[in-house]
Amino acid sequence: MCEQAFEAEQMMASIYSLFIINKSGGLIFYKDYGSTGRMDTNDSLRLASLWHSMHAISQQLSPTQGCMGIELLEADTFDLHCFQSLTGTKFFVVTEPGTQGVEFLLKTIYELYTDYVLKNPFYEIEMPIRCELFELNLAQAIRKDKVALVGR
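^ thats the sequence. predicted structure below, dont judge the formating
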């Protein structure tokens, strides 16, 4: 159990940002977790659109049947991890290179999304996420203290 807590703390310290993109490529949620060069709104929209396009192209160009697109993009200064739900919503996290356990984090974020956003009667599908409970629980899942991800 202590090993899990240490791994969760290591992982949480290395998250730069989180993006959620709807199935048509629109950015519906963005959160920066302390990356050195903060992006303005236009940059985050451009990056989300670019990632959506790259993900779609990779599905079409893949030599493997049933390819779901890029799941991990490794660069010198960051890693970009992606999870696509069955409805086409994409969740991607930008982390420090070599960060482990991000798949678990992405699935946790997806669970929070389904529990607090999709079940919210005031949320309209494909629209920007403005849900306080989602953001509170997301902050709890991502924060750098001992409770992050260990209890889930």
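Residues 41-61 form the longest helix (21 residues).
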